[in-house]
């Protein structure tokens, strides 16, 4: 043991310096490693334990050694080695199960398998290996948040060793965590966890060589603030940053409350990766992303560019934007359905005043950051800061298609909320799932579409039992979250009267989609069919326009069905009989009249009409005979 001190073993330097163990804790791990590496040490431990079956370090034998070799008091050394000591909590050692009759001082310890491999192979890397989901972010040349805020927060962190960052989303507090590491020239270890419990404390305590930034948003939503966990971790780390939700009570722990990332902060985040210029400014207007997300999107865009044969440098803004959108869609997971579409306003057949309103929605969203930053209207509004819209009208009138056009015009994803995945029978789970959906959409990754929203935003029922009470709580939560939501949310309904009036008052735009008139139906029929070169000569759409008052969705279905019927024939031309058969099936599907009188002169092309006419002719011929 004395020779070990003279050799300046790197293992001792790691245990004392990097991992912060005490002198006694360091000797405990060193002796456990010696037992693994040298058979004579294992034999010596058997003698000290006075048990030929034990070849490992026992607390009593360890305490006697430290008394003899280092003059450490017996009780202090014994308390270090008994179950629950720092080295064991950090996962360096593991306790061997023995019969319950054994006193704690006789229960042996040994190196964990990972530590044994490390020391037997002589491998001591700069960063501790871990089973955690850790993203290592190098320091940035620029800070995303204001320097005065970052330097003040860093001073508190250096003094206290623990700093809680409280914000509405983990994205904002994560950016400050990155800045806290960058201002000190450190690597940030982002420990992400979506679990309802904090990560394994032993794994976190072994993160050295950088600043651990631990996300506790999910853990604090379902259970109290984990003070015992924080006390344990903070005793073994020189500094740790904790990300907590806006409603977390952090007690006496030092805490910084953060607003959402404003336009200037977002611009600095993108400038840290792309430098000053139009690329950073354009991306900052569209996305509320932290630096780690921007870096990940930039790497993915560069990889895709190289695979397509492009240059390995100079990633374009649209490539990064596409990756940020894809990144957001993956984070949504099964909670939503991502509707991909290239629809544009020119494809939308609606009255002119509706088209003008949709264009106004695009301008409203794009101008919102400037209104809040430059025009002094950043305070709370009676309608909130988000852009919520209601699209009402009969089925097939273009409500969902209009939402797709909006998403394409703004360059955003369109997420349709899957109520079967969001609404849960367990209390509180619905709110948690919706919070995650809103957070990702708010980052600029997409527009939220609540299709048939009256199922979720309908009139609140009279409370007759516990189920009604909690259903009303979910609606109330949605109302509150929609008010604070800064993105675009679109609600569609077939019956506006089914919507809760308290919610309707909070909407920015309410659009009523009417059934199409004759001129609109003409355009819809033409757009739903293949190009005119694929029409049979003399095909006239006027009888269909005049006779059938159908919505655009039904007309589109008829066009697709008629195209398939035409494609099954040799010449592949759309004929009037194809349109009649497709129309008959669509009317049957939606429950509208489909008699011969409804079709008029077109009835000769109805299914079965030719056979019926031939049968009547045969009867007439037999009568004449």
Name a few traits of the molecule:
single chain; 625 residues; alpha/beta; Rossmann fold; 6-stranded mixed β-sheet; 30 helices
Overall structural class, as computed from helix and strand content, comes to: alpha/beta
Shape: elongated
Specify the number of helices. 30
Look at the structure and give the CATH class of the largest domain: Alpha Beta
Distance between the termini: 126 Å
| Overall tally of domains | 5
For the report, how would you describe the main beta sheet? 6 strands, mixed
Q: What CATH architecture label of the largest domain applies?
A: 3-Layer(aba) Sandwich
In terms of DSSP E residues, the strand content is 5-15%
- Per CATH, what is the topology of the largest domain? Rossmann fold
Mean model confidence by pLDDT: 82
GO molecular function, one term: ATP hydrolysis activity
Organism: Corallococcus exercitus
Protein name: AAA family ATPase
Family: Belongs to the AAA ATPase family.
List the helices and strands and how they pair.
Layout: H1 2-7, H2 10-18, H3 23-37, H4 39-49, H5 59-70, H6 74-81, H7 86-89, E1 93-95, E2 109-111, H8 113-121, E3 134-137, H9 147-160, E4 162-167, H10 170-183, E5 188-191, H11 201-205, E6 211-215, H12 217-222, H13 227-234, E7 240-245, E8 255-257, H14 263-274, H15 278-286, H16 291-307, H17 317-332, E9 336-338, H18 352-374, E10 387-393, H19 399-410, E11 413-417, H20 419-422, H21 429-445, E12 446-450, H22 454-457, H23 466-484, E13 488-493, H24 501-504, E14 509-513, H25 518-528, H26 542-547, H27 552-567, H28 576-590, H29 596-599, H30 609-624
Helix pairs in contact: 2-3, 3-4, 5-6, 9-10, 14-15, 14-16, 16-17, 17-21, 18-19, 21-23, 25-27, 27-28
